[in-house]
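Sorry to interrupt, but I need a hand with the structure work. Leave the record below and I will have a look:
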Amino acid sequence: KFEAVRTFTDNKGPISGIDFHRVEDLLVTAGDDDSIHLYNTATGTLQKTLLSKKYGVGCIAFTHHANAIICGSKNNSWDETLRYHSLHDNRYLRYFKGHRDQVVAVCMNPKNDAFLSASLDKTIRLWDLRTNACQGLLQVQCAIQPSVAYDQQGLVFAVATEDGVLKMYDARQYEKGPFTTFNTQSVMPGGKPNTFVSLQFTYDGRKILASTPRQLIVLDAYEGLFKRNLQLPNGPPHTERLLFGCSFSPDDTYIVAGAPDSAVRVWNSLSEGIPEVARWNVQTGVPTCVRWAPRRKLIAVADTSGALSLWVPKPRP
C-alpha cells in the first residue's frame, strides 16, 4: 500500500505535464495557469515558481542539466515554438521553430543532446539542443495525437502511427526509415485496432508500454508481440476526453496509471494476468499525470484540480 507524504496546491488550474530529472531528486510541472513549478522530491519542498504568460506551457521535459527544461506552448498560443528554458535565471536559451500546431510530447535522448517532439500537426521532429535547426522530420498519420519514445540507451526510438502501428527507428540513422514495423492489431486479442497516445520503453529496453485513451498495452520491443492488456474503468462524463499518464517502476516490475474513476492503480507486470497490487483514490481531482520516479520508490500524481501529491510505500509494521 502507498501513502501520500506531501501534497502541493501551488497550481490554480489543472497540471498538464510533469517530469522527473533522471539523476537529481527534482520534479518539474507545467500548469494550465501558465506556471512552471520545480520541486525537490528528497525534501518535499517547492524550490521555484516561474510564469510563462506569453506562451502558456504544455508538455515539459528536463534536459540533462538539473536547471534546464524543454517546454511547449498551450492555451491556443499563436506560437508553437519549443523553448529551451533555463530555470536558474528564468531565460530562454534557444528557440526551436517548425511545428504548426500544439506540441503534445517532448522526449529527451537519455544519452546525448538530441530530443524528439510530437505535434498535433501530425509530425515528429528531431532536434539537438546545440542548434535551433530541425535535424529531421517524420510525417505520421494518427487519429488523436502522435506519440514517440526513446529507449533507455538512446539508440532506438518508437513512433506510434495510425491504428496501432509502431515504427522503430535507429536514432543514428533515422533518415533511412524504420528498421522494423509492428502492426499491433494483428497481435491483439480480437484483432482490434489501437490508437496509442503515449509510449514508454522499460528500463531494460525489452518491452514497450503503450497507452490508448482507456487501456494500457505491454508489447515485446523486439518482435512487437502482445504481452499484457490493462483496461481502465469508465468514469463520469466529464472524463471522456481526458488522457491518462502511466509509467513503469525503475525495476520494470510494476506499472502505475491514473484512471477516469479518480483512482491510481499499480499492477505487477511480471505476474500472469497482472494482478492489481495497490489502488488509492485521489480526493482532489482526476489523476491525469502519473509518473514513477526513476531512482526512488516514489510516485508523483497530478490531477485536474491542480494538486500534486507524492506517494511512497507504507512502512511495514
Q: What stands out?
A: Residues 300 and 310 are 5 Å apart (CA to CA).
